[in-house]
Automatic annotation (TrEMBL):
Pathway: Amino-acid biosynthesis; L-valine biosynthesis; L-valine from pyruvate: step 4/4; Amino-acid biosynthesis; L-isoleucine biosynthesis; L-isoleucine from 2-oxobutanoate: step 4/4; Amino-acid biosynthesis; L-leucine biosynthesis; L-leucine from 3-methyl-2-oxobutanoate: step 4/4. Belongs to the class-IV pyridoxal-phosphate-dependent aminotransferase family. Its EC number is 2.6.1.42. CDD domains: D-AAT_like. Its cofactor is pyridoxal 5'-phosphate. One of its GO terms (cellular component) is cytosol. Acts on leucine, isoleucine and valine. InterPro entries: Aminotrans_IV, Aminotrans_IV_CS, Aminotransferase-like, BCAT-like_C, BCAT-like_N, Class-IV_PLP-Dep_Aminotrnsfr. This is Probable branched-chain-amino-acid aminotransferase.
Length: 286
C-alpha cells in the first residue's frame, strides 16, 4: 500500500500528488515548514508548532486559511491512514503556483501550496544514538540571517550534514563571530554543574519548540538556566552537551571537533532531561 499524503485539500497516494513546476517553494525556496513527532499515534507539541508556523507565515506575508482545528484534523487523518505509531509529520506551506518565474510575489489571493506527509520511525523514542551520544564538528554559519523563520532553504544544513558524515561524525554545530549559533537542525546546550547554558533567542537561531519546553522542565527540576552565547572551547570544557529538536528530542553530544566530553558517554543531566521531556510531551500529545 502506498503512503497517503495531503495536498491542497486532497488525500492522495504519494505517486498522484503533483505540484506545478512554477511553485514558489520549488523555484525560490519560498516555503515554510514544520516537523512534529508522533508517539503512540499522537502528535507532540502541536500548539507550539502551529504558533511557530503562523509566525513564520506572518514574517513572510504568506497566507493560508486553515484553522488549527483543521491542521490537527489533517495530522490525525494522515496518522490514521498511514498507520503511524511512532514517526514524524512533515508540513510545508509554499507561496503557491506563481504561473511563471518571477522574483516578485504572485498576486494576493494566489492560493498557497499545502503539503503534509508522514514518515514512519518505529524506534523514534528509543533511539540507540541517545545511549551512546552524538559526535559533532563545527563549521562556520553560512546561512541567511533570518534563522528564526523556518523556511525550506536547507541547502547549507544539508552540506553541513554531509561534511560531518565525510569526517566520520554525526552532525555539525554552526559558529558565527566566534560563538556557537545552533546545530544544523537543532538547538544546542552545554551543562556546567547544575547550570544549563544555551544561546538566547534572536534572529540568529530557530526558536525551537523543544527548546521552549526543555527550558521549562529544566527550571521545574531546579536547574539553573543561562541564556547566552558560548564558544566551541567552552563547550569542549563543559561537563556535558546536548541538543534538542522535534525529531531527536534531547540528544547527548559526547565529542566536539575531536575533543571528548567528560567520560565520552552521555551524561546524567541530558539523560534525565530526555526522560522528562519524553514523559511530559507524551502526556500533552493530541
Ligand atoms: N529541525 N534549529 C534548526 C536550524 C532546526 O532546523 C530545528 C528543527 C531546530 C529545533 O527546533 P524544534 O525543537 O522546534 O524542532 C533548531 C527540524 C526537526 C528539521 O528540520 O527536521
Amino acid at each position: 500500500m502506498s503512503r497517503i499524503v495531503y495536498l491542497n485539500g486532497d488525500y492522495l497516494p504519494e505517486e498522484e500528488a503533483k505540484i506545478s513546476v512554477f511553485d514558489r517553494g520549488f523555484v525560490m525556496g519560498d516555503a515554510v515548514y514544520e516537523v512534529t513527532s508522533v508517539l503512540g499515534g499522537k502528535v507532540l507539541e502541536f500548539e507550539g508548532h502551529m504558533a511557530r508556523l503562523e509566525r513564520s507565515m506572518n514574517e513572510l506575508e504568506m497566507h493560508c486559511d486553515l484553522t488549527r482545528d483543521e491542521w490537527l484534523a489533517i495530522h490525525r487523518e494522515l496518522i490514521a491512514r498511514n498507520g503511524i505509531d511512532e514517526g514524524l509529520v512533515y508540513l510545508q506551506v509554499s507561496r503557491g503556483n506563481a504561473g511563471d518565474r518571477d522574483f516578485h510575489y504572485p498576486p494576493e489571493g494566489t492560493p498557497p501550496t499545502v503539503v503534509l506527509y508522514t514518515q514512519a520511525k518505529p524506534n523514534l523514542a528509543d533511539d540507540p544514538k541517545a545511549k551512546v551520544g552524538i559526535k559533532v564538528i563545527s563549521l562556520p554559519d553560512l546561512r541567511w540571517h533570518r534563522r528564526d523563520i523556518k523556511t525550506v532553504q536547507l541547502l547549507y544544513p544539508s552540506m553541513a550534514k554531509m561534511a560531518a558524515e565525510k569526517a566520520g561524525k554525526n552532525d555539525a554545530w554552526f559558529v558565527e563571530g566566534g560563538y556557537v549559533t545552533e546545530g544544523s537542525s537543532n538547538n544546542v546546550y552545554i551543562v556546567k554543574g547544575n547550570k544549563i547554558v544555551t544561546r538566547h533567542l534572536s534572529e540568529d537561531i530557530l526558536h525551537g519548540i523543544t527548546r521552549a519546553s526543555l527550558l521549562k522542565y529544566a527550571a521545574e527540576a531546579q536547574m539553573e538556566i543561562e541564556e547566552r552565547p558560548f564558544t566551541i572551547e567552552e563547550a569542549q570544557g563543559a561537563d556535558e552537551a546536548f541538543f534538542t529538536s522535534a525529531s531527536a528530542f534531547v540528544m547527548p553530544v559526547v565529542e566536539i571537533d575531536g575533543v571528548t566530553l567528560g567520560a565520552g558517554s552521555p551524561g546524567p543531566v541530558a539523560a534525565r532531561l530526555r526522560e522528562i521531556y519524553l514523559d511530559e510531551s507524551r502526556k500533552s500529545a493530541v
